[in-house]
Design goal:
Number of helices: 3
Strand order of the largest sheet: 1-2
Radius of gyration: 14 Å
Distance between the termini: 26 Å
């Protein structure tokens, strides 16, 4: 497993629901730019956030990617530690305040 530099970490949250709030805000901020009308659908995005919170609560990771209008790809990842189901011995990344 490779690791990202600490500068790519945008925050840490103690509870999956808190991470879900951040995910919801990020998806909402970019939704109007998603290339696919299906990806822009608010009800679909709400379902993605709920599913992400459930997966995080079970110790799993979440990764989303959407093509934006033009040639840009937007990706978001939420990683669980304490413990992560797939890598329970892997230490948590550097902690930073949420931004």
């Amino acid at each position: 497993m490779g690791s990202k530099p600490p500068s790519t970490i945008r925050g840490t949250w103690g509870e999956p629901k808190e991470a879900g709030v951040r995910l919801d805000r990020q998806l909402a901020a970019f939704a109007a730019r998603f290339a696919s009308a299906q990806d822009r659908d608010g009800a679909r995005l709400a379902l993605l956030v709920r599913a992400a919170v459930e997966r995080l609560a079970e110790g799993g990771d979440v990764s989303f990617g959407h093509y934006l209008k033009g040639t840009v790809f937007h990706s978001l990842a939420l990683v669980t530690c304490s413990p992560n189901r797939a890598a329970p011995d892997l230490p948590c990344p550097t902690r930073q305040a949420p931004s």
